[in-house]
Amino acid sequence: MRRALLALMVVAIAAVAVYWFGLRGSSTPTAEAKPTTPVAQIGEGKTVIVVGDDGKLLGSRTAGSNKKGGGGKQKHLVVLSTKKRPKGDRVKGHVLEEVHVIAAAPPPLRRYITSAKYEKTGVALETATGIELRFGDDREASRKWEAAAAILADPSVTLLSYVDVTAPTHPSVGGEDHELPPAG
């Protein structure tokens, strides 16, 4: 009886092992690490705190610390509205909303964004030419960027002060104070 029980246990353990390792190689999903992309910075000047697209603080950098091979260029980072290092290892609240909107920006447009702030109407980004892009909150940031890009690409629009995409299906523009960023 003891031998039969021992044989049954060995067979059961072998079956579980085959089942377990067989599944691991076939249909069990594997987690893939997504690298955090730097998109913003806290502070201006010689030393800034770099913030990733997920709001995580990625450390400090100095004006010349990110050069590759001596002649590389630093990645463009948008200046966030907060001036102090947040508690913990990531930004929170309205500053995190700013980061989400910046991270959703199409790369060709992101390079023209200089700063972000949170106003009574929500997230507002400023371009290098002074145009304010108003997003409200960070929900549907991709759709809001599509609406903003469509307005900025419209050849009939040449001067404006702001683009409001808080409602991406009904964007609005106003003013005539600033030129559009160069195409491309």
Describe it:
The protein has 184 residues and is of the alpha+beta class. It has 2 domains: 1-31; 38-179, 3-Layer(aba) Sandwich (Rossmann fold), CATH 3.40.50. Helices cover 29% and strands 28% of the residues. A 5-stranded mixed sheet has the order 5-6-7-8-9, with helices on one face. A 4-stranded mixed sheet has the order 3-2-1-4, covered by helices on one side. It starts with a helix and ends in a 5-residue tail after the last strand. Residues 66-72 have low confidence and may be disordered.
Q: How many strands, which pairing sense, and closed or not: the largest β-sheet?
A: 5 strands, mixed
| The number of domains | 2
* Amount of helix: 25-40%
What is the count of β-strands?
9
Number of helices: 4
Distance between the termini: 81 Å
Provide the gyration radius in Å: 25 Å
Reported CATH architecture of the largest domain: 3-Layer(aba) Sandwich
In the CATH scheme, what's the topology name of the largest domain? Rossmann fold
Widest β-sheet, arrangement of strands: 5-6-7-8-9
Provide the β-strand percentage band: 25-35%
Unreliable stretches: 66-72
Order of helices and strands: HEEEEHHEEEHEE
Shape: globular
In the CATH scheme, the class of the largest domain would be Alpha Beta
Mean pLDDT: 82
Structural class: alpha+beta
